[in-house]
Amino acid sequence: MIQPTTAARLSRRLAAAQSEARLPSIVGGLIRGGELIWSDAHGTIDGRANGHEVDEHTQYRIGSITKTLVAVVVMRLRDEGALDLADPFERHVPGTPIGHVTIAQLLSHGSGLKAETDGPWWERTPGDQWRALAEQLDLRHPPGQRFHYSNVGYAALGELIARLRGSSWSRAVSEELLEPLGMDRTTKRPVAPHAHGLAVHPFADVVLAEPEHDAGAMAPAGQLWSTLRDLARWAGFLAGHTQGLLSPDTLAEMRVPMVIDDIPGVAWTAAHGLGVQVWNIDGQRFVGHGGSMPGFLATVRVDVESGDGVVLFTNSTTGLPRDLASGLLAEVAQAEPTPIQPWHVTQLPTGTLDLVGPWYWGPAPFDVRAGDDDLLRLAPREGTSRASRFRPVGRDRWIGLDGYFAGEPLVVIRRSDGSVSHLDLASFRFTRTPYAPDADVPGGVDPAGWH
Q1: φ/ψ of residue 31, rounded to 5
Q2: Are 137 and 177 in contact (CB under 8 A)?
């Protein structure tokens, strides 16, 4: 837990947001180390002064945060070998106009598929079943060309799950994620106590009730309801505490920006990975998702490096302050930084110690360091260009995990006496001295040497 003085500042920030933005209610919480370390709530389920007060157990509709759970089930299917992300949709759900679109493109909103349905505002009207929706599928842009957010795309992924699991998408989400994580207050339809979906008049202190319904085939795009306690568990999942339900490598894959949300004239700060939103804010990387349905707004956001996360709910169609999530995270990070982990000695993989120290790519100086996670870290002496981490995959063989050399092989070349001659990294030679003449540098080294 956090100190009382920090909690008081966070609560005041949350209360100010509820009052100044004229929200019927607001609930917020912060996670650290996968656990809820602070939460608070202000307002009532219907906005009335004498109404039922909200708390961490009150249900709110989470809207598009539903998509993150749908995406994890799809990734679990991939890890089981039931599909490939490069598969065309047609391979698993035949007979639609978007059969050539890939599963990865649907997950990342790079499919070019239309944003919404052809019928009335689906978020406020009961939904059709898949057969009727499938006839409406068409593209607004060529697949893979640009980011175009598509609620319809997640309806398609829900049908994909149903075909491969032999049951509904919601049952798959419940059995594979909600039940193991103990998220027993996350449901497809509201279960009391729950907040009422409201629209707040822009110029008067009155509200209008928003409709609630089953969205049918569109439900995978934003149907679920949840509570602060439950969504905090999901924030912990996105921070890396997956409890064995998803491999760390797959979670990392989901968090890689796949399609940039490019707005002309504006420096990009937002992108989409495989089912999660990715934000790049002042050099910090965040992942999560926002949720918006008539009468409700929600946010889950996690700092990838620190693992700190924030969860927010309100029962208003509009009005949640845009900087509230980042402000709460910044407040706790400044007041109570994440604990510094003590240094300790470690056991390196055999042959690793020969590899650390200075290396040169031509005349450019690099350093290789080893840590307690069995990884090598290659970084230029200045800047960050072509910095990468490498994981061992065999004797004197490593594979790049990120940066320029992600997926590329690093091979240690040894002399006949076993000493290291040079590193072969994706055909580049890294030598102990600039252009070492005995290191088999492609193109050779001028015999006249440095002069």
Answers
A1: -115, 150
A2: no
- The token pair at 314 is 């309100």
Q: What is the total residue count of the chain?
A: 451
Of 366, 303, 312, the closest CA to residue 334 belongs to 303
- Could you state, in order of their start, the residue ranges of all structural domains in the chain? 1-341, 357-431
Give me the CATH code for the 1-341 domain, please. Answer: 3.40.710.10
Q: Which residues pair with 285 in a beta bridge?
A: 280
38 phi and psi angles, rounded to 5 deg: -160, 145
Which letter does DSSP use for residue 270 in this model? E
Q: State the residue for tokens 């100044």.
A: 20
> What's the whole-number average pLDDT of the chain?
95
Q: Does residue 159 contact residue 73 with C-beta atoms inside 8 Å?
A: no
Confidence at 339, pLDDT banded by 50, 70, 90: confident
> In this predicted model, what pLDDT tens digit does every residue of 229-257 receive, in sequence order?
999 999 999 999 999 999 999 999 999 99
Q: Which of 445, 447, 451 is nearest to 362 (CA)?
A: 445
Preceding peptide of 193 cis, ω within 30°: yes
